[in-house]
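Input set for joint prediction.
Command: fold jointly, output C-alpha cells.
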Amino acid sequence: MKDELNITNKWICDKCQESLVLEKVKVRYLEGNFEVELLKCPTCKMVYINDDLALGKMLEVEKGLEDK
Amino acid sequence: MDLDKLLEIGNECIHSEPPVCVASCPVHMDVIAFTSEIEKGDFAKAYKIMENKIPFSRLIGKICDHPCESKCVRKDVGGSIKISELEKTVIDLGYDAPKKAMLLPKTKGNIAVIGGGLSGIVTAVELDKKGYQVTIYEKSSRLGGSLWDYEGKGLDSSIIEEELLLISKKGISVFFNTEVNEENLQTYIEKYDAIYLGTGYWSKEYDINPDTYQSDIASLFIGGKIQSKNNSVIHCVSSGKRAAVSIDRYITKTSMLASREREGIFETKLNYKIDTVKPIDVVKKTSSIYFENEAKKEAKRCLKCQCNECIDACVHMQRFNVTPDSYIRNINHNERIILGTHSANEMINSCTQCGLCKEVCPVGIGMKDIIHDTRESMVERGKMPLSAHDFALKDMSFSNSDYFSMVRKQPSKEDSKSLFYYPQIAFCGYTRGLYKGSGKTGFLFYPGCQLSATHTDYIGDIYKHLVGAIKDKDAQNDVGLYLGCCGAPADWAGRVDLMPQSVEKILNVWKEMGEPTFILACSSCTSTFEKYLPMIKTVSLWEVFDKYGLPEVAIKKGKKELSIHDACATRHDTQIHKSVRSIVKTLGYSIEELEFSKDKAKCCGYGGLVSCANKEQADDFVNDRITESEQDILVYCAMCKDAIVKGNKRAYHLLDIIYGNEIDQAVPQKMPTLSDRQNNRKRLKKQLLKEIWNEEVKSDLSNTYDFTLNISDEINEIIEKRFILVSDIEQVIHNSIKQKERFFNPETSDYLARLRIQNVTYWVKYEENGSDIVLKDVYSHRMQIVEE
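C-alpha cells >
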C-alpha cells in the first residue's frame, strides 16, 4: 500500500517544490481521533488526500462515527 | 420521547395480524404459508406446515371440519379457498414418515390421561413433548376413539393404526380395558401430579374453566367432547393441546392465564378489503381429491390476506422493508441504545414525512409525526448525523441572510408618482394598484426560497400582478413582499434549536407589517405556517389567482392534457386542490388525475430532506411517481418540479402554464443547479429592489475573483451530486493561487488544492491557463486533518 502510493503519486508541493513523503498524520472527526499514514509535504506539512480516499474510506469512517 | 407510548402505537399496527382463516382455526394452522408452498409445488413443505400445528396431521388433515373455510375472505369473490381439500392432497403428495425422535428424559411429572380418544392422545403426545411421563387409561382395547368412526370414510384403517403406533414409539404407557369412573377417579387424582379427562362422556358435571380446561379440582383438567359438547374434530384437537399447556403451567406453577388470550378461535383485527379483488371461481376436482396442478391452482386463489397498505404505497417502507410495527421497534432500539451503532439513523432520515402512510392505514397509524419527533430527539441527544442535513441547513441560512431575505411594503403612492401618467395608468393594473396605495399592508406575498431560486423570473411579475388585481377589488389593502425561508428544512431536520428563531423572525415581520395575510406560493411554507405560525392568516397564491384573476398573458398552444402531481405538504388543503384545477381548466388544459392524488398524493422525494440525506431513496420516490402517468406532469411546488425533471419526466410548474411558457418537447428540460439557485436568490433581491423599490443594493455581497472558471457538464453533475457550491470551489482556487497552497502534478500540469470552509474540507483539481481555470475534479470530506 505504502509503496503503491509512493510510486503512483506524482504530486509535489507547489509552494515548497518538494516530493511528498509518507508520514503519520492525525485526523479527527466528532469523538474520533486517529493516526494514519498519509502523503505530505516534508516542509510545509500540507497533507495530500485523493478522491478515492475522501469518498471511500474517509466517508465510511465519517458515517460510522456519525452513527455512534 | 415517550418510547413506551410509541411502542403502543406500534402494537396497533395490523401488518402482522393473522388472516381470518388462521384466527378461526382452533389450532391456528398457518394457511398463508401452507397455500404459498402448494403454489410453489412444494407439498412436503406444505405438509410440514400442517404438522407444525396439527398433531396426527396425517389423520386430522383428512377429516378436519374446517371452520376456517366459512370465514375465508375469498368467500364472496369466487368462493372460499378449499383449505380442507388442499390438506388432503398435501397429505397424499407431501407426507413423509417422521424421523425417529430422540427419547428425552421424562422428569417433569407424572400425568394420567383418561380416555385414549382423539383429545386424550393429543394431550398425551403434547405432554410427552414437554417432558412428562404420561400414562393413558383406555376402557376399550384400542386407542383412537372417534377416529375409528372415519374408517373407510376418509381414513384407511392401516393408516390409523400406523399413526397410533406413535404413542408406543414415544414410550407413553397405555392401560387398555381399564375403565376409570367417578367412583375410582379419586385414586388417580391422588396418584398423579395431574389428570386429563377426555372420555367423551362423564357421569358427573364439573365446573370447567373454558380458557384453561381446569376443573374445580385443581389437578383435574377436562377437555374434548365433555367440555365442548360438540363433535368438531379440530376443536377436540385444540382442547387437547390447550389442556396440555394448562397442565404444564399448573405443574411448573406459572400463571394459568397470562398471554393466552389468543388460544383457540379469536377475532383478528385484520379486515381485508375485497373491493379491488377480482373474482376467481373455486377449482373443481376432477377426481375424489385435487390433483397436483389443481391444488396449485386452487392455492393460487388464496389472497394471502395481510395488511400491506402503507408499504404498498410507500417506496421508503419498501426500501427498508418495514411497516409501522417493525419500524417503531427499530426506532425504539435506536433511541435506547447507548453504546454501539445507531443502525436505524439512515432509515429515519429517509422518510419524506409526507404522511401518505396515515392516509392509507386502516387503523390510522402515520409515521410522519413519529419520524419528526424521533429526529428532534436525535438532535437533542446529539445523535443526529451531521452530514445528513448540513447542506440544506446551510442553504436555509443563506436564504435567511441579507443575500436574499428582505421585507418591503408596497411602494408608496408618493414614491410612485412618476408612473402616474397616461397611458400607463390606463393600461397597467400595477400602476393603478400603486395609485390606490393606502399605506396599510393587508397582504404580504411570500414566494419562499425554492420558488424564488428556480422560477426567479416570475416573482416580480407575480408581485406586480397581485398589486394590480388585489387593489382593484380591495382598495384598502396594499400588497407587500417578503423574501426568506419559512424554516421547513429545520423542521424536517428536527432542529429544535433553529426552529424557534426562524418562527420568531417571521412573527416579528408579521407584527411590524400590521398583521397582514400571507400569500404563500409553496406547499412546504403552507405546512410550516400551519404548524408553527397558526396565528398568521395565510392564503395560497393559487386561491388568490383563482379569486382575483390570472395575469393576462398570451397563452401558447401546447400539450393539452396534464397529470396533476399534488404537493404532499398540502394533501388536506382541498381549497388548494380546487383552485389549482380551476386554473388549469381555465387555461384550457384537461386533467388526467393520478391514482395517488389530492389527500393521497405521493411525495416527489424532496420532503423530509431525503434528497439530501439519502439520494437513492429520493430517486425511488421520483421513479415511483413518474411511472404513474404517460402525460407530462403539472406541479405547484418548485421542489416537486425539480425532482420530477431530474427523474427525466417533463414537468410544468403551474406558473409555467399561467405565464404561457410551453416546454420545448425537443430539448431536455433542465433545472438550476444548487449554485444557480443561490445566485438566483441574490439576483432576485437585487432586481426587485431596483425595479420595484428603486433601491440599489449597495455592495454585491458576492466575491469577484480575477480568474474565470470553466466547468464542463460532466463536472457540473459531479458537483451537484456531491452537494458542493461553485462559490466554495472559487474560494479554494482563490486561496490556492494566492497562498500557493496547492499540489502540482508535473506529468499532467494539474493543480490540486484544499481549503476548509466551516466544517468541510473541499478539494479542487484544476488546470490553470493564465486566468482561465478548467475544473477537473471536486470532492470533500468532513474529517479534519491536522497539518503539523
